[in-house]
Specification:
An eight-stranded parallel beta barrel has the order 1-2-3-4-5-8-9-12, surrounded by five helices. It has a single domain, classed as Divalent-metal-dependent TIM barrel enzymes (TIM Barrel), CATH 3.20.20. 42% of the residues lie in helices and 18% in strands. The chain has ten helices and twelve strands. The chain is α/β, with parallel strands linked by helices.
């Protein structure tokens, strides 16, 4: 991994990106930290043309997006159009809202929908990935749901955006999951995890938690990962400061 592959997930700073002016200010702050790429999520609504112009002005590449889950499944052609306007190849299905992971019928409908939507994106030269949380590590008929999702979709239609924090919270090994998705892992969410007495686990800056990031990054690189995206769902203070702490740790300790 080199520093040019490290991106900031804008969901981290979503409260500061509701308007074009706020988004522009946030982009400037993130670029000053040192990030050269961002993932669009939780931004706007802002016209794609303005997003592109602002990012271009700050020297930021749009490496990926998160899009509405229902739109991906029901109107994937709208996602194709949006990605084309943003000049972006990758998006992720962000969260399986309304899916009962104890129901084989529910899960299999999701799988079929993901495979079909991914085919539409693939035909347009784009890539649909799946962003996991902890819920996908439930077992259904003796099989981990996330395994079921990947084993029953065409790798050409659905690839991975492994979230290291949620893999850990789900009771699995982030290193093993990066290895498992060899050739199918263009995106990785770098998100650290620390134990707490109150809730069991909490989000924290990269390097302030317990995850084995040297091992995770090495495994992701071997699996062909292109973008290493820093995300922190909640921050103890200024989220830009959290993004800075994570970036500085990555630059000092984890890049080749």
């Amino acid at each position: 991994m080199n520093i040019h592959q490290v991106a900031a997930q804008f969901y981290t700073v979503r409260d500061f990106c509701k308007t074009a002016a706020e988004f522009a200010e946030s982009c400037a702050k993130v670029r000053m930290i040192g990030y050269e790429a961002i993932q669009i999520s939780g931004v706007g609504p802002i016209p794609e043309s303005e997003i592109v112009a602002i990012c271009k002005g700050e020297g930021l590449e749009i490496c990926a997006t998160h899009e509405d889950s229902n739109t991906i499944l029901k109107s994937p052609e709208k996602i194709v159009d949006r990605l084309a306007k943003l000049g972006c190849k990758y998006t992720a299905y962000p969260f399986p809202g309304g899916v009962d992971f104890t129901s084989a019928a529910d899960v299999d409908r999701l799988i079929a929908g993901l495979d079909a939507a991914g085919q539409v994106l693939r035909d347009a030269g784009q890539v649909l990935t799946y962003h996991n949380h902890a819920c996908e590590f439930l077992k259904l008929d003796g099989e981990v749901v996330l395994d079921r999702i990947y084993s029953r979709t065409n790798p050409a239609n659905l690839q991975g955006e492994i979230d290291t924090y949620w893999v850990q919270v789900g009771g699995a090994d982030p290193v093993a999951w990066c290895q498992k998705l060899s050739g199918r892992l263009p995106l990785l969410h770098l998100k650290d995890c620390i134990a707490t007495a109150a809730s069991g686990s909490a989000f924290c800056e990269i390097g302030n938690g317990n995850l084995n990031f040297p091992g995770i990054i090495a495994a992701a690189e071997e699996s062909g990962c292109e973008w290493f995206i820093v995300e922190q769902d909640t921050c103890p203070g200024d989220p830009f400061n959290s993004l800075r702490i994570s970036f500085d740790h990555i630059k000092a300790n984890l890049v080749g």
